[in-house]
Amino acid sequence: MPTISVFTSMTNPDERKDPWRQALSCYEDLADDVITIGQDFPDEFKWDYFGEIFQDAFNHAKGDWVFRMDVDYFFHEKDIPNIKRLLKKYSTSPAIAFPQYQFFTPDRYQLKTKICLALNKKKFPEIKLNGGGDLVLPTLDNKLIEVSDVPNSRIPIYQYDSTFRTKKIIAEDRARFARAWYRQFGNYGNRGGETPELAFEAWFSMIKERYTKHTFKFKMKNHPKYICDDLYNLKQEEFGYSAFGLSEITKRPIINYLKGYKDKYLS
What we know:
By secondary structure, the chain is of the alpha/beta class.
């Protein structure tokens, strides 16, 4: 079997309420080599700093395949043997794409996108993490590695976006990232503005719209084992408890159910 590296970024993860211990437990089950970066991440930065530290982690990874995992990304334990078989099967491909299941509350998800998470360093050590609008997607020969050009796995990546964070933590974090975006691109895009109030307002507006697309129901017991207990014990002030009240008021048009089904099963 090919060897595997995982790298992930975390900065003050206890203060930011990232599920970092749970994530590392997952990554250690998958990988031969786990790298953590971002411990010295500056409070104020330019957006391209992400690509710089991601590239450094990729360069230092020892595995034949390298997974770039956000610290809120998880694989299910039952899928790990199949992931390893996929890496062996597609040993000549520069990458493998995985569908991303995005959870705001534990009982629902959306297939948000597909991501080239597994990168074939053994065959393609010249891969760079400098592409896409966020300047962190993998490129080869100065061209974005497109999901449509590589094998697509049906094994999902589970993303728990801000699940354990309070409004205050989210507002401050989003403002910090908005300022970094402004330094890089000269605008705030859809990130609201430099203050926690503006950044939170823009973020929550986006969440309201996206939550209407969370059409797939999910049983608590079916989450990855690494995070199940934490999901059972969510506190009311934490986003994942009810998406700050959205779980009680959100209505989902039928078109979102149809699109979700198409994206998951027909695309």
